[in-house]
Write the C-alpha cells for this entry.
Amino acid sequence: MRTEILENLRKALPENDVPAVQECATTLYNALPNKDELRENTVMVAYGGGKDSAYALAFVRAVHLALAERHGQTFRMRVTTMRHGGMPYQVMQNIDRSYAALGLYDDPDVELILVERDTVVPFDRDRAMPHKLIDFNRVDMLMGGHRSYGDGRATFCNACNLNVADSFGVAARHDGGVDLIITGDSPQEQRDYALWIRRLARGAGQKPADARKGFKGTLETLNGLAQAYFEDVHGSQNVERVQERGVTSEIPALEFFSIYDYTSYASGAHWRLLTDFLNFVFDEIAFNFTESDCANPALMAHLRGLRTEHAYGRTYGEGIAQYVDFAIELMRKKHFPDHLVEEMERRYRTGEGVEAMRAAATEYGEVAFGINTEQMVCVVYSPFAGRAANLHEYLAAEHPELLQDEEKIRTLLAGGRDEGVAARLERISGLSVTDLQALYNGPLWSPSAELGTQAGVLPLVMDSDPHKKIIRVKRNPEGEEVLDRVAGR
C-alpha cells in the first residue's frame, strides 16, 4: 500500500518536487534524534484543511514514505487539526478526502487528531462541533467586534490566531510529546514572526521569554500577550474567562523543521495534486478570498456591508465592494491562481451575486455561531463599549422604541439591575448583561484612529497587522468622504 501511494504521489507532485522529496528525506533523517529506530521519533505537522496545508501534508507524506522505502521503517507522523467555529463541514470533508488519498487512515505510523481547545480527540469527519467550542468562539467574536466597530481582524482573526498557537502547544505535548514540528514557513519567516511577537510584548510592557528557549519561549511570550489581549477584550474583572484563553507553553524544548526550500508553494504549480489526487473541492462556503479552510472571510465581507448600510447610511453593496477590492488585491499578493481570483470576482460581480452571498453569510453566521442579523448589526455600531459612546446613535437608527429607555440602559450598563431592559439587550446583542457591562467599562477601539493614540494590546496588534488597508469612504448618506480602514482575509 505504501509503495503504491508513493508512486502515485510522485506522479502527482510537481516535477521539481520529486527529487526534492529525497533531499528533504535525507535532511529530516539527520535531524531526527533516534536514527536507529525511526518509529521512536514523532514528527508533528499541522493541517488546517486549506490548500497550502494540504500541499504541505502531501509533501511530508511523500517524505514519510520515502524514508520507509529507504530504511524499511519511518517516523511516527502526527497530523493535527485545530477546530473552530469558522471551519465548515466542507473543510472536514476536504481533510477526509486528503487523508484517504494519502493512505493515512490505514497506516500504523500515522496519528490523526483534532484539537478542540484543550481537548484532543481522534479525527472524525462527522464529529459534531462541540457546543462549548461554538460558544467559546461566539463570545470572542462578539466581544472583539464590539470593541472595534466590527473590524474584520479584531472580530474574527486575533483570537483565532492565539487559539492556533495554543493548539500547537496542546498537540505538541499530547501523549508523550513530539520530537520535531514540520512547518512550511521559511526560517526567515519564523524569525520574523518570533521578533514581531517579542516587539508586541515589549510594546505591551511585558518582558519576552528568553529567546534561547526557542518555540517554548515563543509560546510563553504569546501566553502573556494572550492574557493581556483577552483582558482588553473581555474585561479585567472576568478573570476566569481570561485565564482559560491562555496559550499552552508547558512543552519540552522543540525544534522546527522547515520544508520551505524543498517545495513549490505557488498553488498553480500543484493544482493537479490538489484537485485530481487529493480531491480538493473549492466551494462557496469553504473557499472565501484568501482562505480555503474557513468561512469567516465571507462573514467579514458581510459585516463590512452591514456597517456601510446601517452605520453609514449608504448601501450594503458599497461596503461589499470595498471589502472585495481589498481582498482581491490580497489574493493577488498571495499569488492565487488567476482562475480562483476570477471565481471570487464572479461571486460578487452582480447585484444578484451580492445578495446570494449575503444570504449565504447570514445563514452561516446563524449555523456556525448562533448569531443573527440583528446581533451583527449591533456589532457594527459598537453601542456599549467605551461608556456606551455610540448608544444613542444606535438606538435612534435601529431601535427608536428604546430611546425612551436610554437612561435605564446606561444605568444597567454601569452596574444597575433591570430585568426587562436586560432581557431586551441580551436578545439584540447576543451577549449577557455581564459581558455588556464589561464592554461599557472597557475601551472602544477605533480602526481609523491614528497610530499610537490608543492604549492596550488590541490596538498594538491591529496597528502592526499587515492585512489592512486605509481607504476613502463615504460615511453618511450625503457622501462626506473620510479615511477608514478595511481589514480581513
In short: The first strand starts at residue 42 and ends at 46. The beta strands are 42-46, 76-82, 110-116, 119-122, 180-183, 255-258, 468-474, 481-487.
